[in-house]
Design a protein that fits this description.
Radius of gyration: 21 Å
Number of strands: 6
Strand content: 5-15%
Structural class: alpha/beta
Shape: globular
CATH architecture of the largest domain: Orthogonal Bundle
Helix content: 55-70%
Number of domains: 2
Order of helices and strands: HHHHEHEEEEEHHHHHHH
Strand order of the largest sheet: 1-2-6-5
CATH topology of the largest domain: Cyclin A, domain 1
Distance between the termini: 76 Å
Length: 277
């Protein structure tokens, strides 16, 4: 009989936690819906026009959708300046808008594992650990940005503005690092983000594996590719680099890698080729 009050007590705690969790989710969803329905200020729109030529290409409906996504992103994520970098509205809006382009036309999860974005004024030096013939080698590397699984995104402001303003070079550090965030949502950085249907993984794996191997071969033979050679590093980097090309070089990708373009088109529910016509 002594165990009954304990069991009831535990059950009560569990019930309370369930109700609390459901209430929290409901409030969050209502807050998100309210923010999604709002536009952004004219000053912020001017910042996007100045810093993100890709924003010009978006149809008006997608621009409005992007404004709502930016509102939610800025309400839920923290920004921290490093190395003397000031976190201004321009910094936050420029990063948020590019990150949220990956969420357009989808049921957004708003990068659930991400809490903080660290921003440096320029390329920064970070410690790296690599294996060399079985040995662990520590060193330093210069970086434009990085995405940590279950952790933050780190970006360099000069790389953000430089990559965004050259909209046809297939290099965009924000799109790249936030593609990694999408990839990492399932707990693995393997180039296979969460797809809508389980049956989609077979085609995804076949197409991306073939294009990944093609890029490795082109890299080995120093042949040109619509996708940056850095994508030959591993499948995770291939997905991130392919995402950059999908948004910034849709004509070239559609022509040279049509199957890859179609897979990314299905995943992102977007067709950037239409924006550039």
């Amino acid at each position: 009989m002594e165990g009954i009050p304990i069991a009831i007590g535990v059950g009560g705690v569990v019930a309370f936690l369930i109700v609390w969790r459901l209430t929290t989710i409901s409030r969050r969803n209502k807050r998100r819906a309210r923010l999604m329905g709002k536009s952004i200020s004219s000053d912020w729109q001017t910042m996007l026009i100045k810093n993100i030529p890709l924003y010009h290409r978006l149809p008006d409906e997608l621009k409005q959708q992007l404004h709502g996504l930016v509102n939610v992103f800025l309400a839920e994520k923290n920004f921290v300046g490093c190395g003397g970098q000031e976190i201004s509205d321009e910094v936050k809006v420029t990063i948020a808008a590019q990150a949220c382009m990956l969420l357009l036309n989808r049921k957004p999860r708003f990068f659930p594992k991400l809490k903080t974005i660290y921003v440096y004024p320029h390329t920064y030096v970070a410690k790296s650990i690599q294996q060399d013939n079985g040995l662990i080698v520590e060193g330093n590397s210069v970086r434009l940005g990085e995405s940590w699984q279950n952790g933050p995104v780190v970006l360099a402001w000069d790389s953000i503005t430089g990559g965004a303003r050259n909209v046809e070079d297939g290099q965009n550090v924000v799109l790249h690092e936030f593609a990694h965030q999408l990839d990492q949502e399932d707990g693995s950085a393997d180039g296979a983000p969460i797809l809508e249907n389980h049956s989609s993984y077979r085609t995804w794996a076949a197409v991306l594996s073939e294009e990944y191997e093609n890029l490795q071969e082109k890299t080995d033979h120093r042949r040109r590719s619509v996708i940056r050679k850095y994508g030959a590093t591993n499948p995770a980097e291939f997905f991130a680099v392919a995402t950059e090309a999908f948004f910034e070089k849709p004509k070239q990708m559609h022509k040279r890698c049509p199957d890859l373009y179609d897979e990314l088109k299905k995943y992102y529910h977007l067709d950037p080729l239409q924006w550039s016509q």
